[in-house]
Structure formats: structure tokens, C-alpha cells
């Protein structure tokens, strides 16, 4: 019998979930306020705000299970849907990840290393927090904010002036600045019966606060530590679905940055590069199906494309290159698609990635 999955949010993540659901004979229905939402080509769409509980009730009435694609969805919407049908990840996971203070406090309870932190609700509280934590430090909004938004690096005492106002006079958190070696993410999936699978640890590279490159690292020495930390969080939250846990690496140890309670940009490589993609495993988990194999196939790297569309024909002439178009209008800093580069071995992959990057640079008019 055909099932229907309700997805709150109809952006590129919802689009890729729908593409993964189709071979499983699962149709999708979306709730999103944008009439031109890019996932709407792959399922029916209810046009309504994310906090519209009446629309959420309608969505639940049309679906057998539900999920969401990003953290801007209010936990109350997920909780309302969960009163009628299974809705995963649970509202508690969304509420915790949306608030950096709640998130970091959970890490502390679970003995997962984090930078020094302090709550900041006023300019005077910021001054006191800096006296305790020191500089440099990063001031962040407790809720919302992604791709480098909603935060400010404080390096000198003068940077404190009007910092709270600059970030909107909203609840904030101050975190000690970490001089890390690199940024890693661990993408994992958990089923309702507790089955847990973890993809290879991913090395990430950012440009201007936006993820640019992700590459899985076979047999990384910290794979076991990362998987243990993710599993602790998933069990604490009784989590179902895919989660990404972002870490800072300092030598031979990990420090927690944040979790994303959803499929994640750093896991897009799994579409071509893993036995079962993060999107298919998320759909399997939230719909009560057995999880798929998460083994990496060959060598693979993912490159984000943002700002303007690339020379698609030029990219697709390159061996091992796969283009994913999100059907979005160009805008500075906006993710328009991604490129996955695959090869049988790391040496060939390096050559192919360099060719793809050169194609992207040429398209942007960069020598």
C-alpha cells in the first residue's frame, strides 16, 4: 500500500527527500509558505506559514508519517502533527537544537566536550561574560542563524560596543573561541526501535561562513568518538531519523559545535557516494522501514554551488561529476545546487575535483 510522507518545509532538502522517497513508493506532501518552493514539483504543497497549526492538522490528515527539513520550523507545529501521526525527529529534538543554550547544556550533561559558554541577555551581561571567558570569543543568537548568520566574533574590547544591539537585542550565548585544526561532521541515522548507523566522518571546508566542500574520511581515527557522541545525543532525545553533529577537531580530540536534527548539507555526498543516501535512510527511519547500509562507495567529494548557476554542460562533460540543481533563482550567497565528484580511488578523485573546481572558477570569471 502506498504511503504518504508529510514534510514541513519544501526547500532543497525536502526536494531531495521526495526524490529518495519515490523509489520506495512513498509520495510526499509539503507545507511551506513559499508558493515557488523548489520541492513542490515533487509532491502536493499546502501554502501556509510554518506556525499555522490548522495547516499542520491538514498535513497530518493527508500523511501516514511526517518530518521537517530545517530548524526554522516551530516545535509546536511538530508536536501538533505528532498528536495525529508519527512525526520525527521529535519536537524535543527540534526545540533543543534551535536553542544553542539548551543544546550546549545537553552536551554538558552527556559529558561531550564543548567550549566555555555563558548566557547573554544584555550588554552588561556580555561584559561580565567576556571577563569570565576572555577574548577572542563568538557571540551568537540563541535561536535561528545559519551559514554564518546571527553571530559576531569578538577579538578586542572595542568589539563589545553595541554587539548585543547589532545582533537584534535577542537572547544570546557567548562561546569561547576555539583554534581548531579542522571542522568535521558526523551524519548518523536512528530508527524507532533503536537501530543506529553512522556514515564515515566528513571533513568540511567553509567559505565566508557557508559550507563549500565535504569529503568523507575513510578509517578516520576519531570515527568511534564521533559516533559515540552522536549516539548519546540520539538516545537522550529518543531521536528517529538522520542527524548531523558538527565538531571541531583539536589534535586527537573532538569538541562539539552543534547538531542539526535533519538531513544535512555535509551528507549530500551520500546520494552517489554511499550504499544508501542520507535522504533515503531518513525516509526509511521516519516511515518505519529498516535502515540501509551506510558504507561509502569508492572516493567522493561534494562541492556546494552558490550565488550563480555554473556551466552545467561543462561540468557534466567531466568524468565522475554529478550535478544537482535545486531550481532556485540566483542570489548572492544562496545555495543553488551541489556537485558530487566520484572516483574509484583518492588519486583519481583529486584530479577530478580539481577539474570540477576549475570549471566552477571559470564560470565565475575567476582565473
From TrEMBL:
UniProt signal peptide: none
Subunit structure: Homodimer.
Pathway the protein acts in: Purine metabolism; IMP biosynthesis via de novo pathway; 5-amino-1-(5-phospho-D-ribosyl)imidazole-4-carboxylate from 5-amino-1-(5-phospho-D-ribosyl)imidazole (N5-CAIR route): step 1/2
MF terms (GO), sorted A to Z: 5-(carboxyamino)imidazole ribonucleotide synthase activity; ATP binding; metal ion binding; phosphoribosylaminoimidazole carboxylase activity
Class of the enzyme per the UniProt entry, highest EC level: ligase
Catalytic function, reaction form: 5-amino-1-(5-phospho-beta-D-ribosyl)imidazole + hydrogencarbonate + ATP = 5-carboxyamino-1-(5-phospho-D-ribosyl)imidazole + ADP + phosphate + 2 H(+)
InterPro entries per the UniProt record, alphabetical: ATP-grasp, ATP-grasp_carboxylate-amine, ATP_grasp_subdomain_1, PreATP-grasp_dom_sf, PurK, PurK_C, PurT/PurK_preATP-grasp, Rudment_hybrid_motif
Domain named ATP-grasp: residues: 104-287
Upper lineage: Bacteria, Pseudomonadati, Pseudomonadota, Gammaproteobacteria, Oceanospirillales
Gene name in the database record: purK
Similarity-based family: Belongs to the PurK/PurT family.
Keyword ATP-binding: yes
Protein's GO biological process: 'de novo' IMP biosynthetic process
Source species of the chain: Salinispirillum sp. LH 10-3-1
Keywords annotated in UniProt: ATP-binding, Ligase, Nucleotide-binding, Purine biosynthesis
Role description: Catalyzes the ATP-dependent conversion of 5-aminoimidazole ribonucleotide (AIR) and HCO(3)(-) to N5-carboxyaminoimidazole ribonucleotide (N5-CAIR). Catalyzes the ATP-dependent conversion of 5-aminoimidazole ribonucleotide (AIR) and HCO(3)- to N5-carboxyaminoimidazole ribonucleotide (N5-CAIR).
Matching Pfam families: ATP-grasp, PurK_C, RS_preATP-grasp-like
Assigned GO CC terms: cytosol
Listed EC numbers: 6.3.4.18
Residues reported in the UniProt entry to bind ATP: 100, 140, 145-151, 175-178, 183, 206, 257-258
Protein's name in the database: N5-carboxyaminoimidazole ribonucleotide synthase
UniProt keyword annotation of Electron transport present: no
Amino acid at each position: 500500500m502506498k504511503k504518504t510522507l508529510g514534510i514541513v518545509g519544501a526547500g532543497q532538502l525536502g526536494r531531495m527527500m521526495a526524490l529518495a522517497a519515490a523509489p520506495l513508493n512513498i509520495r510526499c506532501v509539503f507545507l511551506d509558505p513559499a508558493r515557488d518552493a523548489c520541492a513542490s514539483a515533487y509532491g502536493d504543497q499546502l501554502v501556509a506559514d510554518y506556525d499555522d497549526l490548522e495547516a499542520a492538522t491538514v498535513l497530518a490528515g493527508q500523511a501516514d508519517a511526517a518530518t521537517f527539513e530545517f530548524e526554522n520550523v516551530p516545535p509546536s507545529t511538530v508536536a501538533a502533527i505528532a498528536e495525529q501521526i508519527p512525526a520525527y525527529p521529535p519536537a524535543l529534538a527540534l526545540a533543543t537544537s534551535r536553542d544553542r543554550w539548551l543544546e550546549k547544556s545537553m552536551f554538558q550533561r552527556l559529558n561531550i566536550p564543548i567550549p566555555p559558554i555563558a548566557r547573554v541577555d544584555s550588554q552588561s551581561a556580555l561584559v561580565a561574560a567576556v571577563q569570565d571567558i576572555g577574548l577572542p570569543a563568538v557571540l551568537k543568537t540563541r535561536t535561528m542563524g545559519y551559514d554564518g548568520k546571527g553571530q559576531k566574533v569578538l577579538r578586542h574590547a572595542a568589539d563589545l560596543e553595541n554587539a548585543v544591539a547589532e545582533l537584534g537585542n535577542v537572547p544570546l550565548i557567548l562561546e569561547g573561541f576555539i583554534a581548531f585544526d579542522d571542522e568535521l561532521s558526523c551524519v548518523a541515522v536512528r530508527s524507532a526501535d533503536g537501530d543506529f548507523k553512522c556514515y564515515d566522518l566528513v571533513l568540511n571546508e567553509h567559505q565566508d561562513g557557508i559550507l563549500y566542500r565535504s569529503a568523507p574520511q575513510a578509517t578516520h581515527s576519531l570515527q568511534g568518538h564521533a559516533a559515540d557522541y552522536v549516539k548519546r545525543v540520539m538516545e537522550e532525545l529518543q531521536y528517529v531519523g538522520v542527524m548531523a553533529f558538527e565538531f571541531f577537531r583539536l589534535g586527537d580530540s573532538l569538541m562539539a559545535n552543534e547538531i542539526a536534527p535533519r538531513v544535512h548539507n555535509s551528507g549530500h555526498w551520500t546520494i552517489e557516494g554511499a550504499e544508501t543516501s542520507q535522504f533515503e535512510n531518513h525516509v526509511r527511519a521516519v516511515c518505519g522501514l529498516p535502515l540501509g547500509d551506510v558504507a561509502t562507495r569508492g572516493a567522493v567529494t561534494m562541492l556546494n554551488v552558490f550565488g550563480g548557476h555554473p556551466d552545467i554542460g561543462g561540468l557534466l562533460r567531466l568524468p565522475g561529476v554529478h550535478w544537482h540543481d535545486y531550481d532556485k533563482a540566483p542570489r548572492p550567497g544562496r545555495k543553488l545546487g551541489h556537485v558530487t565528484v566520484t572516483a574509484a580511488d583518492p588519486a583519481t578523485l583529486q584530479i577530478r575535483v580539481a577539474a570540477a573546481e576549475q570549471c566552477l572558477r571559470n564560470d565565475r570569471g575567476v582565473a
